[in-house]
Amino acid sequence: MEDFGYPNAERILQEKKIKLIRGDGHLLLAECGNSSQRIKIWTRDGDFCFQANAKTAFVTMEVPKVFALETASRPISADLTAGAQKETVNVTKEGRQDGYQSVGEGSKGAETTLVELRVTG
Length: 121
Known about the structure:
Elements: H1 9-16, E1 19-23, E2 27-30, E3 38-43, E4 46-52, E5 56-63, E6 66-71, E7 76-82, E8 85-91, E9 100-102, E10 113-120
Antiparallel strand pairs: 1-5, 2-4, 3-4, 3-6, 5-10, 6-9, 7-8, 7-10
């Protein structure tokens, strides 16, 4: 039975310090570049990207110190936590700041952990 565990999650955690838990296989960690399907996560420890290969996709994770999210063309939704507070942020190319959204410390809030990322269209 498929458990939706993220492939190579242990190796990614050791090499890149990104804890990927599970996903549907349509949102994959990728090199940052200029692809129209690129989704970029900005953290105080560095940035990293995902590549979407479907109109909808998700991945659950635990990535602390996130301060911004960026999408090149696909709308995304992200669940973030700061202490006991949970927040969902939607980012679109047509949205605020043309696909870039400050979160947590990036918007003068508390340190934020990204717990789920979804492509929504």
